[in-house]
Amino acid sequence: MIRDFFRDRRGNYALMTVITMIPLMGGVALAVDYTELVRERQETLNALDAAGIATAQQIVAGASDTEAKAYAKTFFEANLRHVLPANTTLTVTLPNNNAGGGTLVLEAALKYQPYFLPAAVMLLGGTPGQTNINFSAKSEIRLKNTLEVALVLDNSGSMTELGHGSNQVRFDLLKSAAKQLVDQLAGQAQLMKQVSKPVQFSLVPFAASVNIGLANKDAAWMDQDGISPIQHENFDWTTMTQGNSPWPQRYVEKVGSIWYARGTDWDATQKDKPLTRFSLYKWMQRISACTKDSNNVCTSNITYAPIASWSGCVESRPYPYNIQDTAASTSTPATLFVPMFAPDETDYTDGNGRPANNNWHLDVTPSTDSPTRQKFMPKYFNYGTKVTPAYGSNAGPNTSCSTTAITPLTDVSTSAGATTVKNAIDAMVDVGATNVPEGMAWGWRTLSSAAPFTDGRPETEKGNDKVLIVLTDGANTYYTPDSVSAQTYSGTYYRSGGNDLSGNKAIYSALGYLAYGSQTKPFGSSYTYGRPFLGTSMNVSKSDYSNANYTKAMSEHLATLCDNAKAANIIVMTIALDLDSSNTAEAAQMAALKTCSSYSRYAKDPADPTGKTPKKLFWNSTGATLSDDFKAIGNELSNLRIVS
């Protein structure tokens, strides 16, 4: 046909060729424009992505807002090899202008001018009369993830011992290592000028209990009406009858589940209002000054003051709320938090001359029955006849409240915030038993976005990691009355352990007592034991009142708590400090802590030759290795914050 075309002298082929060339040339023009458009668009996208990553690195390194924007523009335009920068527009949105922070957004607009108009404009998606085609693209770069870290640190008495392989006590080693971790993460956070609160730390010191802070006394999540099933453990309000000495018109009445103050001997702030443990702290009075007679008895000019003020510790909620982050609600009273109040135990000593563990007030009752004497309420309203000092933390009604208060999540990207957290670490004191589940539960609550502590970012926010770091130097402990020294009274037998004439089966702590003598059980008649045994398996005997069995019960709660926290996307890191694998209880705690921990997203288990198994975030530390182990923890946390 081609030969015919060249030989033919008629106009048919020429005409056909001309006619055919129009769509052919149009197709060629469109192909040229389309190919060029795709090339320029891809080049713009490549330059945009490269500029995003490069600018993110500048921000991480500490660039200011102005510097970051200028750098992004320069880097973007430098990578436009075949695109005129004049045909592009770059918009930079820094992380501090995005909800939640942490994301750098770069948007580029490309103005493409087709070679062949107007057909190309129409065919490439334009409108009649349009002389160019506009395209836009967006690149989002997640900067280092924001971090919320709860330091849940053992403040028990055993922390006073020397760290293995070190000439320093464990507590000093712990404080130094914890502050080192804060400094390591704060140094990174302080470069992140464009991210709001890039790294936050909370601190939860724990021993036998956790101190939530005096400022939370009137919080709505505290039991303000006395409706929690544990609010009146160890109290027999029926003994507050009308006519009782020394306040005949200070009595009570139960309406529903609430005990109300009745009578004219209450003031207007309490009369006809619910009675709670806060009421006891307020109304328990002592003589603080007076004129005395020859027998040192106050006779006139008497001044009164509180016997004690609440030190800030709360009871462990009853199972299952003790191992959950369930929000407190008056519709479910067991979810509310209750202030600790260590009951005054019997004045009697046993046949060996041993006093009770926590006898801090006169019984003032004719009853010879120790459980009755312990629960007798009028004694708390007896002033006595002599000047007496007030009880502070870890004494009197505040017994087992030995720790400093929780430090809520604090932004360490400011020097003031980092100093606040480190000062709180330095202020910790080492005394008391070891209740890891209670400490860990409160650590989780400090990370939560819901009450009690609401400083945590929403659990659904992307690019934020919530981390629990739990350190302990011993197994969970909850003691029988005769296994610890009683208070130092004038007798000579207190060091052989306290008596349990009241049938409590344990010394008082955030878990209350193990048994309640002959009183009504707080959880109904089907329960014959206290909170430590609630929710435990058949492996925990409900009739074995020994320290070892108590430890077993607490460890079961810890295991379930760990599962609950990890199911809520909490990253759990655990540290066993100076635990002895040859000690049965300590070996069990080491295994529990390792099981509790999460898996690393980055590091692999060195024991796996295939290199496929992720490393458990568990550290078996000694006093000599603690500092290095905290550096490894810092590195793991830093990896959580890499640029993506």
Brief summary:
The chain is of the alpha/beta class and 644 residues long. The protein has helices spanning 2-7, 12-60, 65-78, 119-123, 170-189, 277-283, 370-375, 415-426, 436-447, 547-567, 584-596, 626-639; strands at residues 88-93, 103-112, 133-142, 146-154, 199-206, 251-255, 258-262, 285-292, 298-306, 407-411, 464-472, 571-577, 599-604, 614-616, 618-621.
Give a topology summary.
Elements: H1 2-7, H2 12-60, H3 65-78, E1 88-93, E2 103-112, H4 119-123, E3 133-142, E4 146-154, H5 170-189, E5 199-206, E6 251-255, E7 258-262, H6 277-283, E8 285-292, E9 298-306, H7 370-375, E10 407-411, H8 415-426, H9 436-447, E11 464-472, H10 547-567, E12 571-577, H11 584-596, E13 599-604, E14 614-616, E15 618-621, H12 626-639
Parallel strand pairs: 4-5, 4-11, 11-12, 12-15
Antiparallel strand pairs: 1-2, 2-3, 5-10, 6-7, 8-9, 13-14
Helix pairs in contact: 2-3, 5-8, 5-12, 9-10, 10-11
Structure description:
It is a single chain. The model is unreliable at 517-526 (pLDDT under 50). The protein has 644 residues and is an alpha/beta fold. Helix 2 (12-60) packs antiparallel against helix 3 and helix 5 (170-189) packs parallel to helix 12 (626-639). Helix content is 28%, strand content 16%. The strands form five sheets. A six-stranded mixed sheet has the order 10-5-4-11-12-15, with helices on both faces. The protein has a three-stranded antiparallel sheet with strand order 1-2-3, covered by helices on one side. Strands 6-7 form a two-stranded antiparallel ribbon. Strand 11 (464-472), helix 10 and strand 12 form a beta-alpha-beta unit. 42% of the residues are buried. Among the domains are: 2-142, no CATH class; 146-213 and 401-488 and 509-639, Rossmann fold (3-Layer(aba) Sandwich). It has twelve helices and 15 strands.
